[in-house]
Amino acid sequence: METTNEKTAPSATTTSADLHSPNHHPLEAGHPLAAKPWMYRSRRIGPIYIPAYASPPFQLGMVAVVCFMCPGMYNALAGLGGGGQFDATTANNANVALYSTFSVVGFFAGTFANRMGIKLTLSLGGIGYFIYIASFLSYNRNQNSGFPIFAGALLGVCAGLLWCAQGAIMMSYPPEASKGRYISWFWMIFNLGAVLGSLIPLGQNIHSSSGNVNDGTYIGFMVLTFCGAALAWFLVDARQVQRADGSHVVLMKHPTWQSELLGLLETLKTDSWVVFLFPMFFASNWFYTYQFNVVNLARFNVRTRALNGVLYWLSQIIGAYVFGYALDISRVRRSLRAKAAWAVLFIITMAIWGGGYAWQMQYTRAETSAEDYVKMDWTSSGYVGPMFLYMFYGFYDAAWQTCVYWFMGALTNNGRKLANFAGFYKGIQSAGAAIIFRIDALKAPFMNEFASCWGLLAGSLLVALPLILVKVRDTVPLEDDIKFSDETMEEVMPTVGHDHGGTKVH
Predict the structure, then answer these.
(1) Model confidence, pTM
(2) 79 close to 137: Cβ distance less than 8 angstroms
């Protein structure tokens, strides 16, 4: 096994104008906070290259595994519709509580992440997923709806912290040219958790045509979520992360609660254009209730819902790969890529949801609520069409989320500011989710829910267009990024002489 030490001397000759040059490869300068040299040694085991422990790819991979085990299991359970129960009422009420607290905590979570640090914020966030799934195991036995509703409210607090920390890592750790790929890597690993999570109820219920999942499903989810929460403690602090070119994440060296609360307001003041993305944030989880409860739960039995879940999350992996890598095509200027991404999103919004309209015309809430209604099985005639529609819904979700994160990441590279962006995203997203879960709990007509999804998605794209046309630049100068920090350029900029992948760069 070969190791590569990536700690070298600083250079005084690098200027900020060189930072984004494709021919510039300066690297680490012996950052004063890089106290553990082993963190900065990459390794090769035969043909396999393992990035340094404190490198962005390794740290992002760890975060992705945390989300694989925590939100991934939540998504697998939610994808069954109704939290795996026959009736969605309790799950809807729990999700109203969840997204209500999520929307408040999420909006301000950037303050917590910047003050407490990424590692602590992420680890605290993971605990709520374990308790939430435990509440449905309890409900499966005693039908006490109070526990899931309390657990939902608690999970909203925890998820607000976790997703803010995750978003900050995913958008601020990678270099500009790789943000799309990093987003896709995270989204693929994260959704692999939902795929494997969906295989649990599929295996447990493959010979069942009932409405509820069994206790073993919930226990399997609980084990995985506990492991995910524990893994978060093994992350390094964001200040110790070192990119391949030796640069560091732009942060606050000495954050206080006052500085970070004021920083939240300052973000809205200095980057007021971000409000043009707020409708996209609001729409980004709105359609989950429709897809999981109105499409999957209402029409299919439990084993078919589990199969649909596997296919839905697999399609997310494909969508993240396609869009993440396309957004990083280096031969096309970033500003042009942003416009192309918007156009493609608008086209597939019309195409996929147009197909969804044709499907929704076939049934109503009254029909599927009847006691003698027989739900569709994968052996039923006509299953293939809705199966592919559900897969396209999954592909579309990944495309939407990948593009929104990439648009935010294209506005700045400052980790402190991106933590606030991620908080805005998850807070506003969750407010929308709380509203639509409540609408569904009140038994709104299925077609009304469908129309709200399609209208919000298309309308929010139109609102976001001015920002994409005007504010997405081909690169963001380091001078702009450090304005929102107490760090200097010398502390975060790339450095010369770094050992990259075993090859000395000069």
Answers:
(1) 0.81
(2) no
